Amino acid sequence: MPQNTCIAVDACCDLPDDYIRQHHIRVLPIYIRFADETYMDDRNLQRTKSFYSQGMLEKSFDAESNPVSAEEMSSILEKELVLDFDRVLAITMMQSRSTIYENIRDAVWVSQPKFKQLRKSKGVDSSFRIEVMDSENLFTGPAVLVYEAVRQLEQENLSLRDITQNLMGIKDQVRTFLIPQDLYHLKNRAGKRGEKSDKSLNWLTYQVGKTLNIKPIIQGYRGETGPVDKAMGFGNGLDKVFGNAMEAIEQGLSINV
Prior knowledge:
CATH class of the largest domain: Alpha Beta
CATH topology of the largest domain: Rossmann fold
Order of helices and strands: EHEEEHEHEHEHHEHHEEH
Number of strands: 10
Distance between the termini: 33 Å
Structural class: alpha/beta
Shape: globular
Number of helices: 9
Helix content: 40-55%
Mean pLDDT: 83
Strand content: 15-25%
């Protein structure tokens, strides 16, 4: 018989593998293309290590990530979730930079009759529901929402509806900060993915930053990304970001996450 509720994330979400396994979080894959080869990334640690060891993430490789289509996502949901759970909350990276959210949402919308019939054929009479949430953030930003969703599910035993409502109030307060160690990847690879909007780095900023070792501090917040500060060198940038974070913590954060 199906379990009750599952938290799912796309493979762009930065969560420790141990945490994912411990809390039975399901990872919805994306595609990674290196030159002429394409892989399905489902947060397989050994495969990721292999990419690094083979130098496939160096500048010489033409690399990009792409979401799976709505049709493919429908098959993935059917295989991984529909028969195992009654309720699923899928948290995705910001839809302004990827169609992951849209593809999962569309897959759910189109496939509900098929999912219902599949469960019925397997003798599962309970209803099945998937909530898809745009985190309006990226990388570690969605991870904050996942952590809070897991906490409310496991410690407070809240319903999926209540958890979703609570997260809607939290996500507008989450900010992610990114400091690119190598501006090449930000300039050349981010633009390739075809995001709907990207204000992170223009050509002039790239040239000046590369020459003077100036690193932009980029913020992800409420569905937008853009530079909010800069630092001379990667290490100084880290010091600035973590210094500001510690100061905010000492002053008191508005949510207990």
